[in-house]
Amino acid sequence: MKVMLLREPGQPLSLVERVLPQPGAGEVRLRIAACGVCRTDLHVYDGELPQAHYPIVLGHEIVGTVEAVGEGVTSPREGEQVGVPWLGQACGICFYCRHGQENLCDDPVFTGCSRDGGYATHTLARAAFCLPMPKDRYPDPAEAAPLLCAGLIGGRALSLAGEGERIGLYGFGAAAHLLIQVARSQGRQVFAFTREGDEEAQVFARSLGAFWAGASTERPPLELDAAIIFAPAGELVPLALRAVRKGGSVVCGGIHMSDIPSFPYSLLWDERRLLSVANLTRQDGHAFLAAAAAAKVTSHVRRYALAQANEALDDLRRGTLQGAAVLIP
Question: What's the pTM?
Answer without folding.
Answer: 0.91
